[in-house]
Design goal:
Strand content: under 5%
Distance between the termini: 54 Å
Number of helices: 8
Length: 215
């Protein structure tokens, strides 16, 4: 542990700055993925014909290695101007699948009896969505958000390879110089970010989970 105290004291400001960069990349990506994935997941529950294409496309993105995806986006006219735009776009694409899939699964998993009762009471499709389906599916949707966030925290370290910043800079620099202190100074904060996000969203997920009804 002597390494950690000495190195952190000497590079505290740099680690703090890169951690903020990492949080910015992940936070921006998750926000965009929610803005895109949540509506798409809802649309899939209303348009069954789109399920194969949307989920299939999101699955294909997941199979592309992260570094390769960053490379594919480099020639893009607007994105290629700034590395952080490429990183956020790539991370958003990686975060889409769990959000879309869990939104779809959560809404379609609502008890049909409850849905029919709500329709019988005169609820419109919009009211049905916002007053019944989304509240009951919220814990499942949040589980997808949890997976997406943890995935993005890990993949964001690769963004340093294209100059997008983040804790990956310390890891890549450490690998290049065979310096374990640098590697750990990037890997440990990244792991702590992932664990913190996972635990925090997990607590919210359990809080939103509907209580189990016993006979």
């Amino acid at each position: 542990m002597i390494w950690s105290f000495n190195f952190l004291s000497q590079h505290r400001s740099e680690i703090y700055s890169l951690t903020l960069d990492h949080i910015f990349l992940v936070g921006s990506s998750i926000f965009l993925a929610l803005c895109i994935g949540l509506p798409l997941g809802i649309v899939l529950t209303r348009q069954a014909s789109l399920q194969k294409w949307v989920l299939g496309s999101a699955n294909v993105v997941q199979t592309i290695p992260s570094l390769a995806l960053f490379g594919f986006l480099l020639p893009a006219p607007w994105l290629g101007v700034r590395a952080d735009r490429i990183a956020i776009t790539a991370l958003t694409l990686y975060a889409l699948l769990p959000i879309i899939r869990n939104t779809f699964v959560g809404i379609t998993g609502v008890d049909p009896v409850l849905r029919e009762t709500a329709i019988g009471m005169g609820l419109t499709d919009r009211q049905l969505l916002f007053q019944l389906e989304l509240p009951l599916a919220s814990s499942v949707i949040l589980a997808g958000l949890r997976v997406a966030t943890v995935t993005c925290v890990g993949v964001a370290t690769i963004a340093a390879a294209i100059g997008a910043g983040g804790l990956g800079e310390l890891i890549f620099r450490g690998v290049a110089t065979v310096d374990n202190s640098l590697i750990l100074s990037g890997a440990i904060p990244a792991a702590l970010l992932a664990v913190t996000a996972d635990l925090g969203l997990g607590l919210i997920e359990r809080w939103l989970r509907p209580p189990v009804q016993t006979a």
